Amino acid sequence: MSANPAGSSASVVKRFSRGLMSVVIGKPLMSYPWLVRLFFWKQRRTYGRVLDPSLLWGRSPWVFAGLALLYGALDRRSSPISPVLRSLVTVRVSQINHCAFCVDVNSATLRRRGVPLEKIAQLPGWRSNDSFDAGERLALEYAEAMTLNRVDDELRERIKRHWSDDAIVELTGLIAFQNLSSKFNAALDVPAQGFCTIPGGT
To answer: Which domains does the chain have, with CATH numbers?
Structure first.
């Protein structure tokens, strides 16, 4: 495994010492338990660096491990929810919860999954944009309603007609997970890490 300046212990301490995360700060990487460092290694392979929220969650190793495994299950290849739809939902929930980090990293994932930056930039106004298909619009409506505690019987009925019970459970779980993640990061003021620059700065 090659060294990565963005994820080195020295850079972690320097980054946090600048006050980017003033509530809780990360520790030098080698001070985390081996279990947590295993997830750091996987993040380096996937993103090219350790993700800043992981340095905070890593202070509670078993919670962090459970969280990472849950996300892996929700975002697995065999999920009944398509990769693009999963990413659209996570970005929109992140926007609503004002999580700069989540919008950044999930927009980058959405871009890798083939969605153009122009469409990503239109996510806040998806209701008036015809580039979103019927399934995407329903998922985004559900994500917004869940995040704002506004799910009603009429919306549940439309979801029931569109997806199987298994898919509804997975979609609901993903939206709930993203609310957990984005609210955690927003509360601790975790900044974006520069994964994706969106036109218009949404």
So the answer is: 5-74 (no CATH), 83-187 (1.20.1290.10)
Helices marked H in 8-133:
9-17, 34-47, 52-57, 61-74, 83-96, 100-112, 117-121
**Separation of alpha carbons 57 and 180, rounded Å:** 12
Per-residue confidence of the chain (202 residues) as pLDDT tens digits?
333 444 455 555 455 544 454 688 899 999 999 999 999 999 999 999 999 999 999 999 999 999 999 999 999 999 999 999 999 999 999 999 999 999 999 999 999 999 999 999 999 999 999 999 999 999 999 999 999 999 999 999 999 999 999 999 999 999 999 999 999 999 999 999 999 988 665 4
d(Cα 122, Cα 42) in Å, to the nearest integer?
Answer: 31
32: left (phi over 0), alpha (psi -120 to 50) or beta: beta
Contact between 87 and 175 under an 8 Å Cβ cutoff? The reply is no
Look at the pTM and tell me if it is higher than 0.90. Answer: no
User: Using DSSP, how many helices (H) and how many strands (E) does the chain show?
Assistant: 10, 0
Whether the Cβ atoms of residue 147 and residue 179 lie closer than 8 Å to each other:
yes
> What span, in angstroms and rounded, lies between the C-alpha atoms of 191 and 5?
18
